[in-house]
Write a structure and sequence with these properties.
Elements: H1 4-12, H2 36-43, H3 47-54, H4 63-73, H5 77-88, H6 105-114, E1 120-123, E2 129-132, H7 134-141, H8 158-164, H9 166-171, H10 175-192, H11 197-209, H12 211-218, E3 227-234, E4 238-249, E5 252-262, H13 265-278
Antiparallel strand pairs: 1-2, 1-5, 3-4, 4-5
């Protein structure tokens, strides 16, 4: 899991003195971005305090200090939220086994009402598939058993499939773009839930077994995942370009309903064919054992 100091240091390295109007007096710089002293001065704190903050020795920073640092570092709103999440973390948080996730009956009813016409799935906080309808399953993971989300021990993990499953990688024509989104969202989630042992294990597993994940994670990006485009090379219906939308669940704020819609006429035809081929089933059979 990421520390406050690691995040601050990575962001400090991305901002140059010239961007902030600082005068350069020539000579080589030992750091690619701002020096600690420069950031501290611009944020209105002492260099000693900022150094202790970056080293995890300053205790809890105030919201005013964090907002000042975010302003100087030019963080976007999501990065600023992540900064505050990291600052609220205890210096040495212990990991704990999280409660088992269950899709809420109301989101299952909504998923059921979408039927096969609209591919959709329900994701847990770590990107596990908690439920999907037939066309959602057929669109993103037809090689995985349909009833897999019903067993918490073998639920498909979208991040794990993305980085460790060759079939999932081959499916996505814009894999690299989407991989960066998955990593950035995992970092945001890790800041929100620093004691989630399963989340820590997932990040550790992907770091150990995927060089692509490890190098992207090291980049330090953090972002939310709300909308985007997937350009699929589907093994059954061919090229399918879909837009995905994330709908948050008031009853289960950790869970997201992901819906896919075609973004061109050919993809609309392909999705209709996929819906016909996937058939219809009672959704609740896929979550009955959860």
């Amino acid at each position: 899991m990421e520390s406050l100091g690691t995040f601050l240091k990575s962001r400090r390295g991305r901002v140059t003195p010239a961007e902030l109007g600082l005068r350069s007096y020539g000579g080589s710089r030992r750091v690619p971005g701002l020096r600690r002293e420069e950031l501290a001065q611009l944020a209105g704190v002492s260099a000693g305090y900022y150094t202790r903050l970056e080293q995890g020795q300053a205790g809890t920073a105030s919201e005013q200090v964090l907002d000042a640092l975010a302003r100087v570092l030019r963080l976007d709103p999501i990065e600023t939220v992540h900064l505050h999440n990291l600052a609220r973390r205890q210096p040495r948080p212990g990991l704990a086994e999280p409660r088992r996730e269950h899709p809420h009956p109301r989101v299952l009813a909504l998923l059921d009402s979408l039927d096969a016409a609209v591919p959709a799935l329900v994701l847990g906080r770590r990107g596990d598939v908690l439920a999907w309808n037939r066309s959602g399953h057929a669109l993103v993971a037809e090689h995985v058993p349909f009833d897999a989300p019903g067993d918490p021990e073998r639920r498909p993990s979208i991040p794990r499939m993305f980085f460790l499953d060759p079939l999932t990688r081959d499916l996505h024509g814009n894999w690299l773009e989407l991989a960066r989104v998955h990593v950035a969202y995992l970092r945001l989630t890790a800041g929100r839930y620093p004691t989630d042992a399963r989340l820590a294990a997932l990040i550790g597993e992907l770091t150990m077994h995927s060089d692509d994940f490890a190098s992207t994670w090291a980049g330090g990006d953090v972002a939310d995942c709300t909308v985007g485009t997937m350009r699929l090379r589907h093994p059954t219906v061919g090229a399918v370009h879909v837009d995905y939308q994330i709908w948050l669940q008031p009853d289960s704020p950790d869970h997201r309903l992901e819906i896919y819609t075609p973004n061109d006429a050919g993809s609309a035809v392909a999705l209709r064919l996929l819906a016909q081929l996937s058939g219809r089933t009672d959704l609740r059979r896929a979550v009955a054992r959860s």
